[in-house]
């Protein structure tokens, strides 16, 4: 998987759209954020919802 494909796993919802659906604004309800740089790919649990994908506020 290329770095671009890896990062494409991140949600595409805006923060307001995610909140309206009851999802975490930071990860769009996916529970994690994907980042890549120089071929190093990382999946990091969302710090806002702690990985459950649900809105906290």
β content, as a range? Answer: 15-25%
Low-pLDDT parts are none
Helix content: 10-25%
The number of helices is 2
What count of domains describes the coordinates? 1
Identify the overall geometry: elongated
User: Please, what is the average pLDDT?
Assistant: 94
> What is the oligomeric state here?
single chain
The arrangement of helices and strands along the chain is HHEE
Q: What structural category do the secondary elements indicate?
A: alpha+beta
InterPro entries: HSP_DnaJ_Cys-rich_dom_sf (IPR036410)
Protein name: Molecular chaperone DnaJ
Short characterization:
This protein has helices at residues 3-7, 15-20, and strands at residues 32-37, 40-45. By secondary structure, the chain is of the alpha+beta class. It has one domain.
Features:
single chain; 57 residues; alpha+beta; two-stranded antiparallel sheet; 2 strands; elongated
Structure description:
It is a single chain. By secondary structure, this protein is of the alpha+beta class. It has one domain. It has two helices and two strands. It has helices spanning 3-7, 15-20; strands at residues 32-37, 40-45. Strands 1-2 form a two-stranded antiparallel ribbon. The longest helix has 6 residues, at 15-20. It is elongated, with a radius of gyration of 12 Å. The chain starts with a helix and ends in a 12-residue tail after the last strand.
